[in-house]
Specification:
Length: 477
């Protein structure tokens, strides 16, 4: 049988398979999954994460005439689901002042000082979710979560809005190649992961929001971009100290920690941080450690994740005062055992006090009267400058972040469009931007996605109006 030209005019998807099936009644193209009128512009979003879905919704909302196709290899918004221990740390509400906010981005803090967060900042993100039915709360440390304490509230909201606006989402597929064709469009190769099927679509716009996926980087390179080598960020420290095993679960509300690395000759102010710290069965974690790992990510990589961590457990007390408190305590409790009566001024738990005594070789059953003052000076020094040997990196399960990606110098941040390839856009972790823990990485995704979606939606709307404009007839002229 023959097919009318109108069939092909209505189909902008060419599907290739090892065999095409024919029968007497009809011609069947297997897995012909994306059909649209030829006049419609098409945006292909590579990646169904926070940045990609947010951008798709924004673009479709501004340009209902635009066809939007999101390609995701796994489940959409999978990082959203597991972040924040399954609660989804949406953003950070500690400060909406841009110049303060950007200092939470080890990679990007200089470039993001421009209009990036002015266009769509944390307050805008919170308003967006609130307007779409998700009630949010700001916790004491500034982290923003849904009141439900369930990431599904965020996921359901985004997927519901994507469906409402008409965003098409295809999962279990990957974009294996994107090439430019003569009329400025993109030829996008899509493969299904489980079976041998290849599809091609002709896209007017492409948004790469593939996170730290190698495929996203490879596509960007083929389209003329460079990539800053991706490396882990936001991780815990493995510590070589068997005595720490007995302290697993002990938390310190406020410590001052300084990271020293053999590969680093210069002083980096951000490698000294203040904040809560947690002892784990493998080493050290908590906000102060995660911030150090983020700021030191690339230096730690060069040092093979080894170095020395110096921790001040009483940062608000001067060394001389620590020594004085210890001596006063000794003189007051001369007949009591050292392990049973320890200074409360330092806010220490008994297990950590025992750790300090063992570190200095002091028997806990000794009486305070038997402890020489020079031993107390050693304990004071340990409280103020306790060294830990960093022997590797652990995993932070609440947030998976990579430093590196597409250099921001190759992107126009006010539009998120490539400076190298027109109508090519980027958003999210695929860029060389990463933040410390606390909702900053998601805010980068929301902002970048919003800006990219806005730019694409406005471009598509302008072109649609131009192409559908009714010209006056010769009689009217």
């Amino acid at each position: 049988m023959s097919l009318s030209p109108s069939f092909f005019n209505q189909v902008r998807c060419l599907t290739h398979r090892r065999s095409l099936r024919f029968n007497n009644d009809a011609f069947t193209v297997r897995c012909l999954s994306f059909i649209r009128p030829k006049s419609e512009k098409l945006l292909v979003v590579i990646g169904g994460g926070a940045a990609g879905v947010y951008a798709a919704i924004r673009a479709k909302m501004l340009a209902p005439c635009l066809s939007v196709l999101v390609i995701e290899k796994g489940k959409p918004l999978s990082k959203v689901k597991i972040s924040g221990g399954g609660r989804c740390n949406v953003t950070n509400g500690n400060s909406f002042e841009k110049m303060v906010f950007v200092e939470n981005y080890p990679r990007g803090h200089k470039e993001l000082r421009g209009s990036f967060f002015d266009i769509h900042g944390p307050a805008d993100t919170m308003s967006w979710f609130s307007d779409h039915g998700v009630e949010l709360k700001i916790e004491d440390d500034g982290r923003v979560f849904p009141v439900s304490n369930n990431s599904c509230s965020i996921i359901d909201c985004l997927l519901r809005e994507a469906r409402r606006t008409g965003v098409q989402m295809q999962v279990g597929k990957i974009v294996s190649n994107v090439s430019c064709i003569c009329d400025g469009k993109f030829y996008v190769k899509i493969e299904k992961r489980t079976i041998d099927i290849i599809e091609h679509v002709e896209a007017d716009y492409v948004l790469i929001a593939s996170g730290s996926s190698r495929q996203g980087y490879d596509i960007a390179i083929k389209l003329g971009h460079s990539v800053v080598e991706p490396m882990p960020s936001l991780f815990t420290f493995k510590i070589e100290d068997t005595h720490l095993l007995n302290l697993s679960g002990v938390t310190f509300p406020k410590v001052k920690a300084k990271l020293k690395l053999g590969s680093l000759s210069k002083t980096i102010p951000q490698l000294t941080q203040i904040g809560p710290m947690l002892i784990t069965h493998w080493g050290l974690s908590g906000p102060v450690i995660l911030r150090l790992s983020a700021w030191g990510a690339r230096y730690l990589f060069k040092s093979n994740y080894t170095g020395t961590l110096i921790v001040d457990f009483v940062p608000d007390i001067h060394m001389d005062d620590v020594e004085r408190f210890l001596i006063q305590h000794k003189n007051k409790l001369v007949k009591q055992k050292v392990i049973n009566s320890y200074p409360t001024q330092f806010g220490l738990v008994k297990s950590f006090w025992r750790y300090l005594l063992e570190h200095e070789g002091i028997d806990g059953d000794m009486l305070w009267a038997s402890i020489p003052n020079n031993a107390l000076e050693s304990i004071a020094l340990l409280l103020k400058q306790c060294p830990f040997k960093v022997a590797g990196k652990g995993q932070f399960k609440d947030e998976f972040v990579t430093s590196g990606g597409i250099p921001l110098s190759e992107i126009t941040l006010s539009t998120m469009e490539s400076r190298i390839r027109p109508n090519l856009f980027f958003a999210g972790e695929v860029l060389n931007v990463d933040g410390v823990t606390g909702g900053f990485n998601f805010q980068n995704a929301w902002t970048g996605g919003y800006i990219a979606g806005t730019t694409i939606g406005e471009l598509a709307s302008i072109i649609h109006k131009r192409e559908t404009m009714i010209l006056p007839s010769s009689q009217e002229i």
